[in-house]
UniProtKB/TrEMBL annotation:
GO terms for cellular component: mitochondrial inner membrane. Solcar repeats lie at residues 1-45, 55-147, 156-246. It is a multi-pass membrane protein. It holds the Pfam family Mito_carr. It is found in: Mitochondrion inner membrane. Its main location: mitochondrion. Keywords: Membrane, Mitochondrion, Mitochondrion inner membrane, Repeat, Transmembrane, Transmembrane helix, Transport. This is Mitochondrial uncoupling protein 4. Belongs to the mitochondrial carrier (TC 2.A.29) family.
């Protein structure tokens, strides 16, 4: 991962490490806003906690899975644009012509080739990945935090939030990496008339990848993914809990 980052900085410039940051920010505004809202609605109004105030793990998992899938479906167009913009660095290194120059340019070219439906290219693996990641992230954080509060002397403070976020980041990376590999391969495969040439579905991608490269190929990039998720999870949960505290909202 470090070698790749250094190579990008040398070949294209340090600022290229942030290529695709605009659609990434747009995606997170939509995606995170939706997934968090959906999770709490499902937890508090659909699945409900037990009379003793405990949310069973299976209920938390269902809430996280569903919230992640719904949030990602809404945000899929920005995710597609982000991936295509980030791939431009590789195209330049290989001497290939530039495909997209900006977020707006990517949007126009995608819709010109595949129509509005083209913005949801690869939405199925996107949604599957988000469901698994949030089943790991939201469910693990929620379950871990309240387990710590019930079974230790720790209070609802930054230490508890830190420990819970560490666990949620690890579980999210374990569950999400295979889906991330599938999602990236499907979204970056060549297309003809708006349809992928290499893979017909997520399962087709999984079977072809495992057959050609082995099971552990589904975990290619695990450490970079975990290295990205870990600081994100830590920053997000600590910030969220503090924002809720200072705005008078209840703890998550």
């Amino acid at each position: 991962m470090i070698k790749t980052a250094v190579g990008i900085a040398k070949e294209e410039g340090f600022h290229k490490l942030w290529q695709g940051v605009t659609p990434a920010l747009v995606r997170h505004i939509v995606y995170t806003g939706c997934r968090m809202t959906f999770y709490e609605i499902l937890r508090d109004n659909v699945f409900h906690k037990n009379p003793d105030g405990v949310l069973p793990v299976w209920k938390a998992a269902c809430c996280g899975l569903t919230a992640g899938m719904l949030g990602q479906f809404v945000a899929s167009p920005t995710d597609l644009i982000k991936v295509q913009m980030q791939m431009e660095g590789k195209n330049r290194l290989l001497g290939n012509p530039v495909r997209v120059k900006s977020m707006y340019d990517a949007f126009c070219k995608i819709t010109a080739e595949g129509g509005v439906r083209g913005l949801w290219k690869g939405w199925i693996p996107n949604v599957q990945r988000a469901g698994l990641v949030n089943m790991g992230d939201l469910a693990t954080y929620d379950t871990s935090k309240h387990f710590i509060l019930r079974n230790t002397s720790l209070k609802d403070n930054a230490v508890t939030h830190f420990l819970s976020s560490v666990m949620s980041g690890i579980v999210a990376a374990i569950l999400g990496t295979p889906a991330d590999v599938v999602k990236t391969r499907i979204m970056n495969q060549p297309t003809k008339h708006g349809k992928g040439i290499l893979y017909t579905s997520s399962w087709d991608c999984v079977t072809k990848t495992v057959k050609a490269e082995g099971f552990w190929s589904l975990y290619k990039g695990f450490f970079p993914i975990w290295a990205r998720m870990a600081p994100w999870s830590l920053t997000f949960w600590l910030s969220l809990e503090q924002m809720r505290k200072h705005t008078g909202a209840s703890s998550f």
